[in-house]
Amino acid sequence: MLRVTSLLLTLVLLGSCAGRPGADVLQAVNTRATAGKSIAAYVVSTREKEAGKTLAFGAGRADQPNYARFDISIPPDHKKGKIEWPSGKPDAKKDFVVTDRDMLSKDAFKHDLAGILSSGKDVGLFVHGYNYSYQEALFRAAQMAADADINGVPVVFSWPSMADVTGYLADKEAATFSRDALADLLIDLAQKSPRKNVIVFGHSMGAWLVMEALRELRLKGRNDVIAKLQVILAAPDIDTDVFRKQIEVVGRLDPPLTVLVSKDDRALMAASLLAGERSRVGALDVTDPEISKAAKREGVQFVDISELDSSDGFNHDRYAALAALLPKLDEKRRGGGNDLTRAGAFVLDAVGATVSSPFRLASKVVNPN
């Protein structure tokens, strides 16, 4: 019990070291054009709009999803992997700022979506994790889209997290509440997609939510929907036994389900302790031969991303730095490298990715000779 209390106290203290951005960052700012990028992003949310506020969504649960579109300006000197939050009056020269916003009907959202997908662009769906606010999820998706610099549009699925480090159990209930809405969104995305160009990215507890939605779709016989998806789970906060049962229902994906892990993820250590010391998928050790065997058997690709920098003090947000490497990773894939498209256990070589050698087999790390 002392161990649990100590680790949770550490997480609370780390989580309170920096201020959290409020809903005011969602206010549109009139700004002159800068040399930075502009990202158009959509949000589908099961959060309830806060009473008396123009555009603020908290932890209340909405009976029906709401839809919004934002244009976000990325500062010219943006550092990849980071979000330059406004401190004081927003300044597009140095901050992420919203330059336009619009609440949409479901029909308007689907109309926009159809146009995006029919034009050949990819849609990247980001499902955030525990302890996230609406605005944090939106800006994180914009950061990853800007850093990846690919021909795509980000869509955020924002479920009603409390955005508080002490709200772990409440967040799990809120994620459960949102399963059907996420499954419905995946159906909408797949129906509008002429090819396999819907990328689903679930982080932490959001990864559990993604797997639950996929499980629901498979049980409903919606194989047509799942066939249009490419799925990536980052630091998944999922009990390993639960994950095994989810995989039994979801089955193999093409390309394989990709799982990004770090065995030194402190947030997942805390989650494990809260769950009676049950191991979490996002903290698996890919150098364990049994993990490699299981990955190949189940058709899953585990990738250790521990070489990437983390900015949250927990080693839980390394995925944010991965976006900047995506162009090189895609170049490797198109050049015939098959490590990116097969099941197994791998280690990301962050330096190698810059010279088109992104992965080395985990077994070679342990036994280089």
Key structural traits:
alpha/beta; 369 residues; disordered C terminus; 22% strand; 36% helix
Describe what this molecule looks like in 3D:
The structure is a single chain. The protein has 369 residues and is of the alpha/beta class. It is built from 13 helices and 11 strands. An 11-stranded mixed β-sheet has the order 3-2-1-5-4-6-7-8-9-10-11, with helices on both faces. Strand 1 and strand 2 form a beta hairpin. Helix 1 (2-15) packs across helix 9 and helix 4 (168-177) packs parallel to helix 6. The model is unreliable at 9-17 and 354-369 (pLDDT under 50).
The percent range for helix content is: 25-40%
What spatial order of strands do you see in the largest sheet? 3-2-1-5-4-6-7-8-9-10-11
- Mean pLDDT, nearest integer? 87
Compressed to H and E, one letter per element, the order equals HEEEHEHEHHEHHEHEHHEHHEEH
**Discrete helix count:** 13
Radius of gyration: 20 Å
Low-pLDDT segments:
9-17, 354-369
Structural class: alpha/beta
In total, how many beta strands?
11
Main sheet record: 11 strands, mixed
Shape: globular
Strand content: 15-25%
Intertermini distance: 43 Å
Keywords: Signal
InterPro entries: AB_hydrolase_fold, DUF900_hydrolase, UCP033909
Pfam family, one: DUF900
Protein name: Alpha/beta fold hydrolase
